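dumping these here so i dont lose them again. two proteins, back to back, each one seq then structure tokens. dont judge the mess
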Amino acid sequence: MKGLDAVDFRFRPMGDRSLLIEFDELISPEIHRQVRALSQAIEEAEIPGAREVIPAYRSMAVHYDPQETSIEDLCLRIRELESRPDAHDVSGSRRVRVPVCYGGDLGPDLPYVAQHNGLTEDDVVAIHSGATYLVYMIGFLPGFPYLGGMSGKIATPRLPEPRTRTPAGSVGVAGTQTGVYPIESPGGWRIIGRTPIELFVAHEVPPARLWMGDSVEFVPISRAEFDGIRARAETGEPQWAQMGGP
């Protein structure tokens, strides 16, 4: 991997307790690896006064205590991390397989996505499940993965008006992004399917099943398989194993 100094990043203050670190305007896997590497390096350095690091697509926010450090000292300490030999390493990502039942009442917008793009519903399923996605960030809802890598062939605008209720596990597309609603929520993404796997379990550590940097593959399953996974989960069978996790 290239060093942090191979990609320019700049500092911007956000109020009196937060620092924004921005990389290039481009959203790409390489820039995202740089974001993850710097984020990980800051957390491991345990910089005095630094309280929380929140990474995103091409930037990150560092919340700090102004009584323990100044923004000038914080920027200096972060720049000093570039000279550390381990500062450019990033933890390996996991490859996760998420089962999805597409269409029907579980994917009410699949017909629209197909019509909008001049495709059949089977085409949309094949394209959506045929890609490998990168979890660029977690946000919007607890455990909601923003996934990059979706084909523009199935890009579709959001709903004109958001639904008041989108069930947990709903797999949606919005523009050229795809994602999964981990909990029930209002939402404006076009829903093309649903996974029977719980992606956010509040009482577990960590509560989110997917992490930033993970690679995700969607695996089409039948309605019978969907119902079977749900039924087995109610008996206490671990769901994580079905996603290729540990």
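---- next one ----
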Amino acid sequence: MLVDVHSHLMFPQFEKDLDEVVKRAKKAGVKYILCSGVNHSTNVKALELAEKYDIVYPSLGIYPLDAVGLGHSDDVSARQIEELNVDEEIEFIRKNKDKILAIGEIGLDKLPENPKLEQQKEVFWKVIGLAEKIKKPVVVHTRKAEADCIEILESSKLKDVVLHCFTGKLKLVKKAEDLGFYLSIPAVVTRLKHFQAVIERTSINNLLTETDAPYLSPYAGERNEPSYIRETIKIISKIKNISENEAEKIIFSNFQKIFLKKEQ
């Protein structure tokens, strides 16, 4: 049973063939796909997709750049800045708390020249406060701000934390593991040695799998999709010197512990 704890199936790249994408995911053995919102329109879409597809579950979020009016910068087609009232969006997430598995993606991003980092931190703290109140795990994005992110999370009361596609230094990976956080490994691990090193240095009991679809494909130049989670499992099993079946079972158990609150 495979899990994709971070994807963006509501993005324009999936408009024409999402039914087929979901069918391929099911055929590959994917049982849960967390569809992560970045602003209001994508949060609404995540809820809609969860109603339509039985293996899709919403994770509602406020992307750090959207939170400060800079737009979601990963994709040209998504760069149109959406007016976002942070407090209203937090209330929207709260009202839908019984429909979601997590809050995310949220976090910090230093990539633009003027990222309004202090404002980002204020929003990050607000959403962390909501997660603490409604007792939901968080899926965290951090780019060039990994140390700041870890410091804030460590200062919070949150225990159920997933660091999505974490590219920070390995000493920060170790600190995250020591704090009991989870690191979700993207399918691009087939091509990036950093994520292979994260797998090697981190207990498998702190690992999860993700795609960040449509980005970070294991195949250069191709769109990513949830069925490619199988490629991540192959790498994890090879590095940890266990069978793919065992790796799959452990990752699914980790998923249950944090998102379904089932102790194994």
